Amino acid sequence: MIPKLQVEAIQNGSVIDHIPAQQGIKILKFFKLAQANAKITVGLNLNKNNGQRKDLIKVENTFINDEQANQLALFAPDATINLIENFKVVNKFKVQLPEAFVDVLVCPNSNCITHNEPVKTKFYVNKRQQLKLKCHYCEKSFDHSFFNELD
Ligand SMILES: [Zn+2]
Fold first, then answer.
1. Ligand 1 centroid vs 105 CA: distance in angstroms?
2. pLDDT tens column, 77-128
3. Which residues, 6+ apart, have CB-to-CB distance to 118 below 8 Å?
4. CATH of range 13-94; options 3.40.50.620, 3.40.50.720, 3.30.70.140, 2.60.34.10
5. Check whether domain 100-148 has CATH 2.30.30.20, yes or no
6. Phi and psi at residue 67, in whole multiples of 5°?
7. Is the distance from CB of 44 to CB of 19 less than 8 angstroms?
8. pLDDT tens digits, residue range 121-151?
9. How much distance in Å is there from the Cα of 8 to the middle of ligand 1?
10. Contact at 8 Å (CB) between 121 and 109?
C-alpha cells in the first residue's frame, strides 16, 4: 500500500517520514545528505493529521540501511523509513536508538583526545537516562541536546 504523501512520489529510494518540524534541515546538514549525489526532496512543516507539523525527506536511488536510520533517532526518535521500489513501499520500519554512535558526532569536551587524534568518535547510548551519550575516549556523558543544538 502506498502511503499518502504530501510531496511528489519517487520511483526508487527512501522516504524519511515523521521527522519533528525543524529537524529536517538539521538531519540534512548532519548527515551531509545535501552533499551526496542523490536527488533529495524535502518537505518542511507539513500538516499531520493531529494538527501538528512534521518534516519529511526523500532521497532518490538511495536505500537507507538500519544503521543509518538509527542514527536519525538522535533528531527524530519517532521517524519511519519507507523504502520505495518502482513507486511501491517495499519496506517500512521505525528508527531505533543504536547502542552507539560511531564517527558521526563531535565530542563537546574540548580536552577530549578525539580532537587531536585521528580516531573515529564513539558515543555509547544510555537509554535509561533519557538519551545521555557517553564518550568512549574521555568517558564524559552528555545530554543529547548538546549534539542536537550543534550547528
Ligand atoms: Zn570525548
1. 10
2. 889 999 999 999 999 999 988 889 888 889 999 999 999 999 999 999 987 7
3. none
4. 3.30.70.140
5. yes
6. -65, -45
7. no
8. 999 998 776 678 999 999 999 987 777 655 4
9. 42
10. no
